[in-house]
Design a protein that fits this description.
alpha/beta, single chain, globular
């Protein structure tokens, strides 16, 4: 029986997302089963950058969709963002050291068959629709998440 790790991704910051996906990819390379549950701001990480819909959304949902980042590369840093300068500096340092970007880690996790779950309640509150997200994202409720977490050997909150 394979070991399993569950990550609850609650933050929508570039550096926190990077940490979550480094762990997810590393765990898959160790042949662990990996599931990631994205709630509230964490949903911004799995928002598809090339898909944008305001149909069937109320006014506040439309405004929220317009002002939040579309995709992972638009996320800010949790500290020292400095109007985006900090995030750009981090990306330059990563590139100079030949390290993958967040979008590369996400693509790696997709290819490695990490399970992506989106919080149903968070999606409803924030006005996101399934079509706003990456195709691999399965929308589940808290009871389904808890079942998955209870079956895991390790749970991490990012």
């Amino acid at each position: 029986m394979s070991k399993k790790i569950n990550l609850l991704v609650f933050g929508g910051d570039y550096d926190k997302a990077l940490a979550a996906f480094v762990i997810a990819n590393g765990a898959r390379e160790m042949e662990l089963d990996v599931s990631m549950f994205f709630a509230f701001w964490g949903l911004l990480i799995v928002r598809a950058p090339d898909r944008f819909s305001v149909t069937n959304k109320g006014l506040l949902e439309k405004i929220f969709s317009l002002i939040t980042p579309k995709g992972p590369e638009g996320l800010t840093l949790s500290k020292l963002n400095m109007f985006g300068i900090g995030q750009r500096m981090l990306k330059v340092m990563m590139k100079n050291k030949n390290k993958p970007m967040l979008e590369d880690f996400i693509e790696g996790a997709r290819k490695k068959k990490v399970k992506f779950y989106g919080c149903k309640l968070s999606m409803e509150v924030m006005g996101f629709k399934k079509e706003d997200m990456i195709p691999e994202l399965e929308i589940i409720d808290v009871n389904q998440y808890l079942k998955d977490a209870l079956e895991s050997d390790v749970q991490l909150f990012v």
